[in-house]
From TrEMBL:
Protein name: Arylsulfatase family member I
Species annotation: Hucho hucho (huchen)
A GO MF label: metal ion binding
Stored PROSITE patterns: SULFATASE_1 (PS00523), SULFATASE_2 (PS00149)
The keyword Hydrolase is annotated on this UniProt entry: yes
Domain Sulfatase N-terminal, first and last residues per copy: 48-361
Necessary cofactors: Ca(2+)
Family, per entry: Belongs to the sulfatase family.
Pfam families for the chain: Sulfatase
Region listing for Disordered, in residue ranges: 506-525
Signal peptide: 1-21
Amino acid sequence: MAVSALTGFSVVSLLSLGYLSWDLMSPNQVENESIPNFRDRSPVPHPPHIIFIMTDDQGFNDIGYHGSDIQTPTLDKLAADGVKLENYYIQPICTPSRSQLITGRYQIHTGLQHSIIRPRQPNCLPFDQVTLPQRLQEAGYSTHMVGKWHLGFYKKECLPTRRGFDSYFGSLTGSVDYYTYKSCDGPGMCGFDLHEGETVAWGQGGKYSTHLYTQRVRKILAAHDPQAQPLFIYLSFQAVHTPLQSPREYIYPYRGLGNVARRKYAAMVSAVDEAVRNVTYALRKYGYYQNSVIIFSTDNGGQPLSGGSNWPLRGRKGTYWEGGVRGLGFVHSPLLRRKRRVSKALVHITDWYPTLVGLAGGNASQTEGLDGYDMWGAISEEKESPRLEILHNIDPLYNPARSGSLQSGYGIWNTAIQASIRTGDWKLLTGDPGYGDWTPPQMLPGFPGGWWNLERHLEPQKSVWLFNISEDPYERYDLAEQRPDVVKELLARLVFHNRTSVPVRYPSEDPRGDPDLNEGAWGPWVGDEEEDHWNGVYHKKTKDGKKYKLSKTKSFFRRLNTRIMSNRI
């Protein structure tokens, strides 16, 4: 969205669009130990090699420099010598974050507004989207993906090797066993999920996935000539997503943690930290490092019930509170002009698309409709961020808030709809944002136990919240009643974005996706020539058993916005 789109709103000038200087936490001292430094073998080429590392379900409080009880010396060192992104936003669940990274677009512009892509759904990243790796291929890059895909696979056309990656090694579904690569989509619906390119990698299971994926990245680096062609590697760890599994040697340092889930989770994070160290070692060893950009990002907030921690942020994975959407992120590179600092620039996961295409020497403007901004100037040179607003999402299919209505939204917006937006310092949530507790670190053995009510935040049913995130990053002081002027303006911003949305793609599960029909493995089951049969309307049963019809067509949004415009909002 262009900055100029904000003009014409009388209250926006009051939104304090500058960013205040505040620290969520005081970073711990970084370990003195440094990563081995190999001398690169030849002059620096151009453009840079890009290594994008994503972890799964790692919480805001699950990294050393945020004061965590988990030790991450490698990540701490890389972040300390680079730029920490402390105003960085992702999506609350897996598929949306990955789709926005790969397309540079909000979910409302790809049809993936609702939930995740299930293994048996005939759904994937829309075919009309030109992906980030495709743009990098056009710029002359060799592109490789290792790890979790989770962007659909019902057709071969959906696979990573058809969406811009020269090679792929990893799992297509959202969650697998770390050793057997068995993935289940409900009781009795299980299959093997480890793939090499477009074929099932039957003989390569048995090794812990964090180690297996790291080994593959090192092989790619060893086989490629860093002076001949720039390299893009997207390393998408399945860690630290459930199931909670790790080799025993990583658990031993955390034997003092009373909470078993936290102990296993911490071990998994430590395995990831070691993996990143090994990847960085290989970058130096094989001559990539001096002309490389390493980006680290989580995909969503942590899940406290599975060992994660977002403390002191509110909420968890799957929610639009800060604990669900504020991510861990940093950039490490010898090419950074201003290093060893903390950036408060507003950054969103969609911004990596134009930023990396720009670094590659490509032209992101060739891709119409991007929601991301080129942030390299803000990250590398501490220039002002071009981003003033983030649409977290509008999900018309999520369970409507019973207390929400068009009247509650001042006739501007139906607050029963789950939506969230941040403009400047202000963040608005409508509908049901998800579980809104502040969950303290799991230091006691019986979690959640009787102390679960320590931070319970019970309030009357409502459907609108407003926070000044710069002054109140923990979302403890709802200002919706005190500042109805700001609420109205942000509701109008939701309407603005809503007009540009496309129909939600959330088809019913296809029984042909059963892995038993595919020799026991998850994989494509629909021919590329077969047409999709998707009716655009999804029926969902409410808790009382009644069907609640939620339209997914543009006509729904037109009717809503016609009503709004008739009120001259």
